[in-house]
Specification:
The protein contains three helices and five strands, in the order H-E-E-E-H-E-H-E. It is of the alpha/beta class and 145 residues long. It has a domain of 85 residues: 2-Layer Sandwich (Nucleotidyltransferase, domain 5). A five-stranded mixed beta sheet has the order 3-2-1-4-5, with helices on one face. Strand 4, helix 3 and strand 5 form a beta-alpha-beta unit. Helix 2 crosses helix 3. The longest helix has 17 residues. The chain is elongated and about 90 Å long.
Length: 145
């Protein structure tokens, strides 16, 4: 009875931290791949590609059914962003432009969409503070050559 050991009541957390870090890396790598997209049939037009030096432009996407989406950044063309109405677009775009007055603004609109709807959205963006509004198109060679 001379050397009796006390039971150890501590938990070794190092293996749990290792597993958590591996899971974190996996989630960080797969999260951008899990975004849902809005299918927008862009018009064909010869134009210059958008440079990658512009960091996180404000992109407003318009589907043929009239749904409007706001997204910061165009790195993933399938990423839709947040669905908005014409009224909430002015509010959200205004907040973004007050925070970043020099943010580039682009509109992605389905080619079958009424021209008046596109102009109305561009007017809302300009009223929210956009200095200029660019249009995103597909190059003609990308759709069938």
């Amino acid at each position: 009875m001379a050397n009796r050991r006390k039971p150890m009541s501590e938990i070794n957390v190092v293996p749990y931290i290792d597993v958590m870090l591996v899971l974190l890396v996996i989630f960080m790598a797969t999260a951008p791949l899990l975004t849902q997209g809005v299918t927008v049939d862009l018009p064909d037009a010869p134009s210059e590609p958008i440079t990658d030096t512009e960091d996180d432009p404000l992109v407003v996407s318009m589907r043929l059914d009239g749904a409007i989406f706001v997204n910061l950044g165009i790195s993933d063309s399938e990423d839709t962003g947040t669905r908005v109405t014409e009224f909430s677009l002015a509010e959200q775009a205004g907040k973004i432009m007050r925070a970043r007055p020099d943010v580039p603004v682009y509109v992605r609109a389905d080619h079958g969409l009424d021209y008046g709807r596109v102009v109305k959205i561009m007017t809302v963006l300009q009223a929210a503070g956009a200095k200029s509004v660019g249009l995103i198109t597909e190059p003609p060679s990308a759709l069938g050559a």
